[in-house]
Amino acid sequence: MNLDDKQTKSAVTALVKHVKSKNANDLIEDESVIWLIVGTKKIPDTRKAMPKRLNLKYSVLQSDAEVCLFTKDPQKEFKELLASKGVKRVNKVIGISKLRDKYKPFEAKRKLCAAYGMFLADDRVIPLLPKLLGKEFFLKKKQPIPVDMKKSNLKAEIEKALSSTYMHLNGGSCSAIKVGTTALSEQHIFENIMAVVPQVADNIPKKWKNIQSINIKTSDSISLPIYNSLPEEVQSISIKHNGAKQRVEEDEEASDSDEE
Fold first, then answer.
1. Residues 170, 143: contact at Cβ < 8 Å?
2. What is the CA radius of gyration of the chain?
3. pLDDT exceeds 60 at position 175
4. The model's pTM
């Protein structure tokens, strides 16, 4: 199943126009994140779900966003590793011991969450992080993204993580996915949406059959629809009647009791 190109482009144009109109009197125009809101018919089981990495054509990480990396101990070794591999995009490295000791109070966790635009983590420490970070990171959709610190080409591994977007299955019927910022052109936002949606469908149980709606919005705008599921399709089946085949149309939702 494919999105309607024309409707998607129209929604992107309208959303960007709305943001520019709202910011018309601002001396400094801030970047607004553009979200893809995917509504499902049935809620997926997400008790052990990790963020799903989705490939983009154009990065959605805001230009001024800083990046924090959680690592095993000792953190100094990983700082030196990043430097030796030419990784310059990571602004802060925090080892597990420091995270446990320095960021134990709720207020410390809240400030840490607000200080960085994106969090990465050595995939070996990911199981420890939910308890150490608390709910704030998950409510703000800033769950740390796993990276393989053992990769020979660590720079490429980090850059791939930073240039992707992520689907956080949060136990509800809606998921919000970053697909652009207003710093991107309308065409680039459109191309990101068209690239991401098929990957979203592939990561949802029953795929397109379980998608109710897809909308785009900023954090403070209304939602603009780009896809809505039609009512359950009528299925056509064949049965034999008096030696001949008869076409019978049955609605998926019909029950045996309705025929009695």
1. no
2. 23
3. yes
4. 0.73
